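so i finally got all the pieces together for this one. its two components total, 602 residues if u count the protein bits. some of the lines might not be protein, just check the labels. i wanna see the whole assembly predicted at once instead of chain by chain like last time, that was a mess tbh
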Amino acid sequence: MTTHPIIETHGLTKHFSVKKKTVEAVTDLTFQVAPGELVAFLGPNGAGKTTSLRMLTTLIPPTSGTAKVVGHDIAGEPAAVRARIGYVGQLTSGSYAQRARDELVYQGLFYGLGRAAATRRADELVESLDLAGFAARPVQQLSGGQKRRLDVALGLVHAPTLLFLDEPSTGLDPQSRANLWQHILDLRASHGTTVFLTTHYLEEADRYAERVMVMDRGRVIADDTATRLKADLAGDQLTFGFATPAEADQAAGVVGRLTPEPVRREGEREVVLTAPGGDTLLPAALRALDAAGLQAVRATGVPPTLDDVFLALTGRSLREADQPDADEPAAELEGATR
Amino acid sequence: MSATPTMPPATAVRPSLPRNTWHVLTRELRPVVRDPFTLIFSLFQPLVFLGLFGPLLVGQSGAPAGETLQWFVPGVLVMIVLFGTGATGANLQYEIMTGSHERTLVAPLARSSLLVGRALKEVAPIVVQSLVIALIAWPFGFQLNLPGLAIGLVLLAVFGVGLGSLSYALALATKDREWLFWGVQQALIFPLMILSGMLLPLDAGPAWMRAVASVNPVNWVVQAERALLAGDLANPVVAWGWLSALGLAAVGLWVGIRSIRRSN
């Protein structure tokens, strides 16, 4: 197993000129991904996630900066990069006029397998991704979830060591989404495939990605595990309820002595604060309140989400930021057209 | 959800033009093989021209039917290729919108194989079409030289690669605006057709029309096809036809590859 990064970028930048205006879709992207990692770009529409992925997969050349993907330069050796990566785009990979299984066979041929090997490989993928029920049907007739499973199968035909997925679960119902993720996780477990995806679903990045790179306005603004991002940037929200406003007044002082974080009043009878390590702070605060003769009648601790992280970083919630701006070509390219 | 399949070793693939072109072409032909009924419809347009336009030409010229068909049939073949490969981009445009074109761009395929393979798919049915047309025209006195037809079909394939590549480039440039693709395509294809003298002779036309026609590659291809199908293989117009077709193919591939590299 090599210790070289499987993705390595330096100052990767993409500017588009639209109507004589320069739009900075991606600015100064510098990062490394080690073999076997599961990384997610998280950000609102138009943040530059798809543009970044399109540069890494050789679909568009960068304006400046360099990147090596699976050991090959994206600008100098695009063919070598293409042969070694798998790619599942935002839209449907299978041609609508083709039958699902035919597409798998031809994908194998495109990637240099012989006809017998390509046929065998197609059959394996039909089996392992549960495509048998519709493998002989034209892609046009498949449901959204079926199309997506075929897309993933097409991305895996040549057993790439690195798989890129652009918004893999957009437009899928919760059941299909869970199925898709099970396949991706199985693949990693059995083959150690490196998975690099973009998503604007918070829950998805939180639950599955081991490493989250938060993108906003063309830049990576945070890069860590979801757990650490939340602990460092957001913190748990603790709420204490009291029977009378007077008790709440006193309680604010008691709780405030336990933490450097500011304590707020919410309504007349509630004390609220946001602090890291809420799971230990909550019982400690209750003991201190008891010792001071103050009885909390309610106490809740809500762990943070990645939305809180995004809010802490940008001052906007991810949902607010997710309104595609019509003037931005990045937003157009991110393709809300699915 | 069963066990993940055994993976073949990831091979380092080097794009190869003939191999890639063959795969792109046979993939494109796959739906036709699956549903050969579509081929029957592709015969419709040439038969309409032969059956409805041919008799008018015969009446107009006053020459015997056989002689007129000898002049007209090669033009119909060129017309099939002109309209067939001219529509290459329309099929592509649909695949750009649905997403499968992007997948072929990420695959380690030689860029030119995408252009050549897709254009040849539009040319392929002409093998069947030309034989059907020759067979129908035969009782009316049409004489077909088979070696000439074979050379003529190769010439049409080269010509079709050029046109198909330009159509591909137009689809990339117009992206999801179908109206724009068709607008530009029609604005070019009809003047090219009329100024090639494939339907009506240009001899009676004004001097400027004949001047434009002399630099229209379609005109030279039509003239070359007339000579070839009649068995006049050594006629100098055949050389001019090849020069036009090869020139168009070179320009088409250059423009096509450039627009693939620059798209997005």
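The first helix of chain B runs from residue 17 to 34.
Chain B touches chain A at residues 1-15, 20, 23, 26-27, 30-31, 34, 94-95, 97-100, 102-109, 264 (CB under 8 Å).
anyway lmk what u think
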